[in-house]
User: What shape does this take?
Amino acid sequence: MKGKYEPDRYVMLGNHVDAWVNGAVDATSGTTVMMEIARALGEKHKTGWRPRRSIMLCGWDGEESGNNSLLTAASPLLHDLMFDVHKKVNDPYRDETVFDRCMIHYKDTDYNKTHKIYSLGAGSDYFAFYKFMGIPSIDMSYRQSDLDQIYNTSYYPQYHTFHDTIFWMEHFVDKDYKVHLTVARVGLLYLLKLAENTLIPFTMQR
Assistant: This one.
């Protein structure tokens, strides 16, 4: 979607489309979220709206075979943007915001004490953007809370297995797709703030 005033400056949202096996969560859930964001942007565009800066929605492959293409973690420049957005989106199943839930989830960590977000590593789609090109980036997902966790793992037990299916997703994980919709709302607000604000909302003091 071409920007109205700064068409040569891009805000990108993307997700890999390849998977080890069935990939209902990894990576189809991310693609589902991106398609919902595309639908919302399309509806807004029908009213005559255009963003200040250009928006690109991207899908790529090659992530599972070694990230040779292109919990939240982010570049420090984007930390305050994330806090602002998280306070505006409600948790899908509780009477609290996404930010409130994060504060509970990380109650004994620096996140709660200093509102510090994890730094991006080298294990996912953002790697080429962040590590090679120095582009401020965000990685977002909903994960099982450590407070409720049964398995001693940061990933769900079906991760990268044959059991990561749509049936499992719709019967045991997100039956009504409320979590998907919540992540889409967060992602859409990220996009709009970065594409629409006259001053890009970077945090220079962190």
